[in-house]
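Office hours follow-up: a student asked to see two folded examples consecutively, so here they are.
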Amino acid sequence: MTRIGVPRRKVFELGACALAGAAGLLVTARARAGTEPSTTYEEIVRRWYEAWEKKDQDQFEALMADDFTFTSAAGDDHISKRAFKTQCWDTQVNFIDRFNLERVSAIGNEAFVKYLCHTKNGKSFRNVEYFHLRDGKVEAIECYFGGKSTFPSAVSNGS
């Protein structure tokens, strides 16, 4: 039997390197898990637009977290669930016919959506929205559009 002599110092160095490598793999795995596409959240986002199309207020409200906020270029700065319902749903839902979801990208608990919205009078406009989701609900939305002239009501009225 042959013995190989390895100094203790070398054994400790190798052990420390192995531990550091293992820790690095865990960090990488966790980081990668947060960037994987989220089918469940993508489905929630799709149901959000479906609620608008079907004018399904119960589904719409069920999808929003209690602390839901909405932000947009129209001066909406983290408005509450109640304010969103009053200022957006109640005033715009009847002008919307349907959405063509051109791009839905959900990663972790975030999603970006680019859509073409068709109004009931045959006109259309495009928006991009950023969703933050938590526990199966929409926690926050940031809406990016050109201005009030791209609201469903403005497009429908020809403004």
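And the second, which I mentioned at the end of office hours:
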Amino acid sequence: MQTIIPLGQNNGALRLTTARYFTPSGRSLQAQGIAPDIEVLQDVPQELAAQAQKTASESNLPGHLKAEGDEQKGSQSFIPKEAKDDKALQTALALIRGTESNPAFHAQPEAGCRQEH
């Protein structure tokens, strides 16, 4: 977590790391993020893909806090305007509806869980 401190008009700013992020189990997310159980990559228009290559991520910043393991670079955050074109959304719906399966997703709720229809 970073705090940006302005240094006055036309003098830039100071980016100060003030905290780290951790999962509930205590694992640091620093320069790593969270790996999804099911990864669905979206088709990104070429003009946006080229722009994303230039976008800085935390792990690219000089002097960033090092991760405890392998560092990840960037992420995919393009969301299509039309829901039918959103691969992550369509995959999630297919898993919930049971028309698609994945070993990381258990379609049957655990015993004792209430399922609403």
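Two things to take away from it. The radius of gyration is 20 Å. The first strand starts at residue 2 and ends at 6.
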